[in-house]
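Aim 2 progress update. The chain analyzed this quarter is reproduced below.
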Amino acid sequence: MAAAAVVDVGQGREYSGRLTLYVFLTCAVAATGGLIIGYDIGISGGVTSMDTFLQQFFPSVYRKAQTARGGSQYCKFDSQLLTAFTSSLYLAALVASFFVASVARSLGRKWSMFGGGVSFLAGAALNAAAQNVATLIVGRVLLGVGVGFAGLSIPIYLSEMAPHRLRGTLNIGLQLMITVGIFAASLINYGAAKINGGWGWRLSLGLAAVPAGIITVGSLFLPDTPSSLISRGRHEQARLVLRRIRGTDDVADEYGDLVAASEAAGAVKRPWRDILERRYRPQLAMAVLVPFFQQLTGINVIMFYAPVLFKTIGLGGDASLMSAVITGLVNIAATFVSIAAVDRLGRRKLFFQGGCQMLVCQVIIGTLIGVKFGAAGVDEAVPKSFAVAILVFICAYVAGFAWSWGPLGILVPSEVFPLEVRPAGQGVSVAVNMLCTFAVAQAFLPMLCHMRFGLFYFFGGWVAVMTLFVAAFLPETKGVPIEKMGVVWRTHWFWQRFVTDNDGHVGHRDTEMTYGKASDIVVC
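Predicted structure tokens:
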């Protein structure tokens, strides 16, 4: 396998500065936008497993679930209307992502975050007050617009604000907030399902306004990034922000590189067209393939439908929701592993280890479910030990995702593009992410019905493919200043054919490369 390039910036010369309390707090506030993404992921599956919600909006699904005993357990929740409720959000986010890039470039990152929060607030209000499926779906569309704005602007904001040595750690704060949002939603679903009167689902959906309010208000107090300010001609303000976030007045080197990157960006008038040029081919490949592979890990199958899935394998309603709470806790704990390791071990090692762990777990989960239910999915009493075994391997799978493809699937696309096409590149990444999420969410229940336990083998096969892809084609970006990222492509064994020397340098300082050994990652 080809060697991974490791960057040594300027023969030991690095940008001045340190991790200041100010930059930590600004990144923490921006990362809270992940709460809206995580809350929605966690709340959807729980609400759609509540009998009162199904009775009011999807009575045919409720009747089918009640009469499934003795029949196929794989097909009892199969409903295109039900999956349309879940997946309509991601279709809206897909459309929104093509407009957010222009907003982020012209108005700045912070106002994109603000717009996302406002849209999510409106969607939460509509969903909580819904009386019919149409209103539910309109609310989901507004939520999707909010997710599209947040999903594009927040990763860019974090990557541009963070010191390059800690970019991975601070960027993964977004994934941490996503996992916290999922966990909070699971707890709320667990409590709301016990509310007498049948209105618990309204509480679950309406409380989405809380994370939306946090990012909406918080974004008003955030500074915009130096890169964004320079690109909009606010040079003195950019210099002041840079000094404050780095905690030093000695920012001439970094400021000079940012200005040079901005000047290059100014020559690009049509980023959506220019991003298709050959010199951006490596970054564009990552912007498409990383989120594509991320959704084909099968994680959203677990997180969207965890309560439904646990019901399918025979756990009761309360037990299934509690199991989703447990997986949420694992998700949070494992994300801290990624925060601690990403800027020490690098991106590639975490991708590879997590991929191997997920592959093993997918195969075991599929086998256990297949042994119990067989191809017909005939309902039988499920022993507690069997249910616990399924839960253990699902937790191990979630942990593997949470320290690899979960945070890194967001981090890598946000850090690899040069400034001139960065919003457009992140827009492509978000669009692909939302399109694949929409497709997986829409297809999961029918696939579970028709592929049965083989569905887990299906996703396991994709995990094997993406793990080999990372080992062969993803360069290491640990510790590389974001405005000098082009050099990792110029020296990569495969991608170097697409870029020139000029594409690998930005600014007035040279960047040299040293090489790691292929033995850093062994393909087994």
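Confidence is low (pLDDT under 50) at residues 1-12, 504-524. The CA atoms of residues 142 and 259 lie 37 Å apart. These observations will guide the mutagenesis experiments scheduled for the next reporting period.
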